[in-house]
Amino acid sequence: MPKKPDDGRNEPQMVSFSDVARLVVELGYVDNMTRAGVRRISLSHPRWPIREDQLLQIGNAKVMPWPPVKEFFRDIYEAKGRGPDKEPRQSRKKPAAEQ
């Protein structure tokens, strides 16, 4: 998917993992993303720009500066995804004892 240019809108300086997920989809850097997906990337990608000790706790959310995270998704990160299902999904049937 081609990446959209920045549209010049006002963007936040600090963002939570949920905000990052929403913004990277809105900006077209990835097709879809969840808060958990951003968190997983932050813990596993060797070039993630924010160290764990740089996160700020505000209420129940951890926040980080948006500009380096935006640059990471725009210039470095390439979404891989888990790919298509290899077999059709199986329906969940309850065992006979539970019916």
Average pLDDT score? 86
The low-confidence runs, each spanning 5 or more residues with pLDDT under 50, are none
Q: Any idea what the radius of gyration is?
A: 18 Å
How would you sum up the global shape? elongated
Percentage of β-strand residues: 5-15%
How large is the count of helical segments?
Answer: 3
Major pleated sheet: 3 strands, antiparallel
Oligomeric status: single chain
Question: How many E strands?
Answer: 3
Give helix and strand order, one letter per element, not per position.
EHHEEH
List keywords for this structure.
alpha+beta, 99 residues
Helix and strand arrangement:
Layout: E1 14-16, H1 17-26, H2 35-44, E2 56-58, E3 61-65, H3 66-75
Antiparallel strand pairs: 1-3, 2-3
Helix pairs in contact: 1-2
Describe the structure.
This protein starts with 13 loop residues before the first strand and ends in a 24-residue tail after the last helix. A three-stranded antiparallel beta sheet has the order 1-3-2. Helix 1 (17-26) crosses helix 2. The mean pLDDT is 86. The chain is built from three helices and three strands. The chain is 30% helix and 11% strand. The chain has 99 residues and is α+β, with helices and mostly antiparallel strands. It is elongated, with a radius of gyration of 18 Å. Residues 77-99 are annotated as: Disordered.
